[in-house]
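Query structure, 617 C-alpha cells:
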C-alpha cells in the first residue's frame, strides 16, 4: 500500500512562501504606485510632452534722441500646409494658387507639388514671407481659394536706416545683427542680448505620434518677459555724416579701411563711431558668406602701432615728473645712436633741427627728441622704462576700456618688469612703435588730457527702457589736474606751428588741438618669415579736440594701410590726410551736436578762431 503524499507541515511552508511572495509583490507595487507616483508620472509626461520656447518680442534700439529707430523687429511669416488633410480634388488648385501668390519660379513650383503629393501632416511651403504677401495669403484663405494652409509669424530683425555708403545700414558695426536663432552677434546686439531678447515664454503641451502639439493641452511654465528698448548715445545725423566722410576718404586714398570715433571727454558718451568698409545688417547672411571680417569693429577690436600720436604719452610722463617743461630745449640731432651704437632711431626727414623747445619736438614730431626725453625719465633704462610703462597703464593702455560693445580687445604693451627693455625699446615706445593699441583707447587717453586727468568710461548706451545710464569714470586723478592746461596748450601749439598743415585744418571760430601719427607697419611674413616693414604702406592717425571756447569733443581717426601718392623723405602724402579727415568730422560734429556747456568738469579755454593740424612722423 502506497504512503500518503500530503503533509501538513509541507502545506504550511508552501502557504508561508506564497504569503511572502504576495506580500513582496504588494509592497513593490505600493512602492511604485505610492512612493514613486510623482516620479513615474513625470517620466510618462516627459515622453508625451513637448516643451516649446516662444521668443519674446525683442527690444528696439533708438539713437540718442529716442526718435530715430536704428533696429527693430517685424513679423515675417512661414507658410505651412497640412498635405495629409488636403482632398485629392483640391491638390492642383491649391498648388497653383500658392505658386501664384508666392511668385514661385518653375523649380520652386515643382518642389511645392512634390510636397503636396507627399501627404505629410506638416510641410513648409515658404519661409520669411513679408507682410504684403502674407496679406494676400490671408485673403485667399478667407475666400477659400486655399485650404489646410496656415501662416506662422516669424520675428525678423530689421535695420531701417540706410548708412552713409551704398549697401550699408546706419551704425552697422556698432549695432551688430541678430542671427536666425535670435541671438545677437557683434556690437550692441550681442553685448545687450539678455536685455534686448527678454525672457522666452515656455509652454508644455501633449504631443501626438507625429510629434506635433495637441490643441488644448498647453501648460504655461513661464509666461516670459518682453525685451527692453535701448536708447544709444549715438546721434543719427552725425553718424550718417561720419560714415559719408569715411567713404569719401576711402575712395580717395584706397586704404584697407578708414575708422573714426567722436567722444565726449567729460561724459564718455560716443556720439558717432564707424569704419568703412561696412555692411548691410539686413543682409548679414550674404556678408557672412562673402567677407565675415566686415562684422568686426576696428575701433574696439583691432590693434595697431599708432606712431607719433603716442608722443603725448611721453609728454605726460616727462611733464608730470618735472623732467621737462614745454619751453625746455632739446637737441634734435636727426639720428640717435643707442645700445652702444648697435641700434639707432631717426627723424622722419633724417635732418637735425638743432636746439628746439620740447613743445616744438612734439609739434614737428621729432623722434630723436622724444627718445631723448624718454631716456631722462629714470637714471637707468630700467627705471626710465618703468616710468613710461606706468604712464601707459594709468592712461588705460594694455587693458580694455570696458566700452559696452562686444569684441573689445586690450592691446599689447610690453612690461619692463617681465621683459628687459633696451634703449631702442624705450626710444621706439616714446614715439608709438612697439606698442599695439585701439582707437577707443587713444580717444579715452586724449580725453583725460583735456578733462583734468579723468579716465572716462566710454559707452554707447544712454538708457535701458526708461532708466537713464551714466557710468562712473574708470579712474580719476590719473595725473594732476594742473597738468591739463599744459597739455591743452601743447596740443594747440602742435596744430598752430606747422604752416603746411595749418592751411588744411582751419575751422573758423573754433579751437582745435591734436597730434598726427604716421606709423610703419610690421609684416612678420616678410623676408622668409624673419619679418620686415611693409613697403610704402603706413597707418595714418590723428587724435585731437575741437570746441567753442574749450575742448568739447575728442575725435580719433585712423587710416589703415594707406599708400602715399607723394613719398619723399619726411613727406608721405595721400589725397585725404588724417588731419584733413579730422577737420571734416570735427566740423560736422561741433555744428551738429547741441552740447550742454555745463557738463563734466571745467576745462581750460583756448583762444577761438585758430585751428590747424599736427605734423606726421
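Result returned for the query:
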Amino acid at each position: 500500500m502506497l504512503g500518503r503524499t500530503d503533509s501538513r507541515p509541507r502545506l504550511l511552508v508552501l502557504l508561508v512562501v506564497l504569503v511572502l511572495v504576495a506580500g513582496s509583490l504588494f509592497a513593490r507595487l505600493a512602492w511604485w504606485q505610492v512612493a514613486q507616483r510623482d516620479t513615474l508620472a513625470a517620466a510618462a509626461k516627459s515622453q508625451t510632452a513637448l516643451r516649446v520656447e516662444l521668443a519674446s518680442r525683442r527690444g528696439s534700439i533708438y539713437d540718442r534722441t529716442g526718435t530715430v529707430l536704428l533696429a527693430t523687429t517685424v513679423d515675417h511669416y512661414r507658410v505651412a500646409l497640412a498635405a495629409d488633410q488636403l482632398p485629392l480634388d483640391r491638390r492642383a488648385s491649391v498648388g497653383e494658387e500658392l505658386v501664384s501668390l508666392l511668385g514661385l519660379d518653375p523649380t520652386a513650383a515643382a518642389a511645392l507639388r512634390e510636397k503636396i503629393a507627399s501627404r505629410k501632416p506638416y510641410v513648409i511651403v515658404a519661409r520669411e514671407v513679408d507682410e504684403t504677401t502674407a496679406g494676400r495669403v490671408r485673403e485667399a484663405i478667407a475666400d477659400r481659394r486655399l485650404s489646410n494652409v496656415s501662416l506662422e509669424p516669424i520675428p525678423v530683425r530689421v535695420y531701417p536706416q540706410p548708412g552713409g555708403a551704398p549697401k550699408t545700414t546706419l551704425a552697422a558695426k556698432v549695432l551688430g545683427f541678430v542671427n536666425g536663432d535670435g541671438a545677437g552677434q557683434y556690437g550692441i546686439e550681442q553685448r545687450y542680448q539678455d536685455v534686448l531678447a527678454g525672457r522666452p515664454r515656455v509652454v508644455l503641451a501633449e504631443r501626438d505620434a507625429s510629434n506635433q502639439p495637441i490643441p488644448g493641452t498647453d501648460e504655461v511654465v513661464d509666461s516670459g518677459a518682453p525685451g527692453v528698448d535701448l536708447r544709444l548715445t549715438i546721434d543719427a545725423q552725425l553718424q550718417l555724416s561720419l560714415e559719408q566722410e569715411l567713404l569719401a576718404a576711402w575712395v580717395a586714398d584706397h586704404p584697407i579701411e578708414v575708422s573714426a570715433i567722436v567722444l565726449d571727454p567729460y561724459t564718455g558718451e560716443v556720439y558717432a563711431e564707424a569704419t568703412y568698409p561696412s555692411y548691410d545688417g539686413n543682409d548679414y547672411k550674404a556678408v557672412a558668406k562673402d567677407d565675415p571680417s566686415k562684422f568686426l569693429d576696428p575701433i574696439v577690436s583691432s590693434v595697431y602701432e599708432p606712431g607719433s600720436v603716442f608722443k603725448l604719452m611721453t609728454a605726460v610722463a616727462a611733464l608730470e615728473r618735472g623732467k621737462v617743461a614745454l619751453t625746455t630745449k632739446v637737441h634734435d640731432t636727426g639720428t640717435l645712436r643707442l645700445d652702444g651704437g648697435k641700434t639707432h632711431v631717426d627723424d622722419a626727414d633724417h635732418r637735425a633741427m638743432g636746439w628746439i623747445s620740447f613743445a616744438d619736438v612734439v609739434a614737428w614730431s621729432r623722434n630723436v627728441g622724444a627718445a631723448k626725453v624718454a631716456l631722462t625719465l629714470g637714471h637707468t633704462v630700467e627705471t626710465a622704462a618703468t616710468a613710461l610703462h606706468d604712464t601707459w597703464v594709468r592712461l588705460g593702455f594694455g587693458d580694455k576700456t570696458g566700452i559696452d560693445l562686444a569684441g573689445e580687445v586690450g592691446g599689447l604693451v610690453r612690461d619692463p618688469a617681465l621683459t628687459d627693455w633696451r634703449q631702442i625699446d624705450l626710444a621706439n615706445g616714446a614715439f608709438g612703435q612697439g606698442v599695439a593699441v585701439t582707437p577707443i583707447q587713444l580717444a579715452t587717453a586724449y580725453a583725460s588730457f583735456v578733462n583734468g586727468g579723468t579716465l572716462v568710461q566710454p559707452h554707447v548706451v544712454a538708457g535701458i527702457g526708461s532708466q537713464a545710464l551714466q557710468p562712473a569714470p574708470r579712474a580719476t586723478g590719473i595725473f594732476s589736474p594742473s597738468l591739463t592746461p599744459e597739455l591743452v596748450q601743447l596740443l594747440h601749439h602742435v596744430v598752430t606751428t606747422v604752416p603746411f598743415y595749418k592751411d588744411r585744418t582751419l575751422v573758423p571760430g573754433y579751437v582745435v588741438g591734436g597730434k598726427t601719427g604716421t606709423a610703419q607697419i610690421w609684416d612678420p611674413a616678410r623676408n622668409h618669415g624673419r619679418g620686415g616693414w611693409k613697403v610704402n604702406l603706413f597707418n595714418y592717425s590723428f587724435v585731437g579736440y575741437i570746441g567753442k571756447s574749450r575742448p568739447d569733443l575728442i575725435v580719433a581717426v585712423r587710416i589703415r594701410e594707406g599708400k602715399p601718392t607723394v613719398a619723399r623723405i619726411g613727406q608721405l602724402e595721400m589725397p585725404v590726410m588724417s588731419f584733413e579727415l579730422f577737420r571734416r568730422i570735427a566740423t560736422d560734429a561741433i555744428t551738429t551736436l547741441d552740447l550742454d556747456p555745463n557738463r563734466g568738469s571745467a576745462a581750460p579755454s583756448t583762444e577761438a578762431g585758430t585751428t590747424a593740424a599736427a605734423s606726421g612722423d
